[in-house]
Fold this protein.
Amino acid sequence: SDDEPGPSYRGPAGVDPPVLLSAAEKRLRKWRRMLGVTVDDWKAYVRAKPQVVQRRTRKGVPAPLRGYAWQVMSGGRELRACHHGVYDELVLSTLDERDDDIAKDISRTFPSHVFFAKPDGAGQRSLYNVLRAYSVYDREVGYVQGMGFVAGLLLLHMSEEDAFWVMVALFRGAVHEPLEGLYSPGMPLVRRCLHQLEGLLGEHLPRLAAHFQRECVHASMFATQWFVTLFAYSLPLGVVERVWDVFMLEGVKVIFQVGVALLQRAEENLLALPFEVLAANLRHFPVSEKREEADEVGRAGDDNVEADDLLERALALRLSRRLEELRAEHDYLNERVSDSGAERSPPP
């Protein structure tokens, strides 16, 4: 196993035994070797040992290295290196019409976290700077509610400038599919993701899908938030960090896997609920049995237990091929609607 401590050692008399590392220390060393010193070191390791990288990432990136790992996995590290001084220019640029909207939403982002709790404290200032810089950088997308949770989670692990360039990498698609469609006018990627999710529910959770239909509950009522915040709003911090470890390496399919896994785990509870409380409960999932067992033996608040349980269930789902089919279906339906609208339009 990657994380098991080495065997005990008894050396000859008068000879000091080698220093024995804890499992956490051994894991940290392995991750340091894997990440290397430069982005090229990381890329070379991924090419040489992709299965090792995936296995270790799914177990969780060590907290001291999480910020740097997210930067290299997303492509943000390279973007920053290629755009020296750009972030500072964006922060110092003239006021934008979206500044008031950003300022209003700052206090609603991770309001209970100590880093963001103080009005005009360091956390809120950094969050404002990153969101404002992005709204100036990409004026077509600008600022949309939900971005704050993405920027906020990044800021808990890295500097302002690093967080900004990881956002750019994610939204523009430096490594994986671009996510800016989650925030651009009309939110086209949100609409596609909701179509894909509803298709997955019909296949993986037919009883729950039928219950949603009877109660007139649509995926948009609960899952829009999942996609726009990439679960940063909906899951405990320690759990969403582990989800993001895998998301940074494997892309947006992980958000679907986690969404389906959450619904699977909560299915029996949700089937008993009427419309009045169903949508609200979809935003606050019950903890898993494994988390309850951990709490009972004194490991209260152990988000790793919850993350292990959720990710084990989520990553067992093979969704890639079906997601592509549902994407093609959505694009086809969109084209038909566009063609139909064009036919009805009067000539100029």
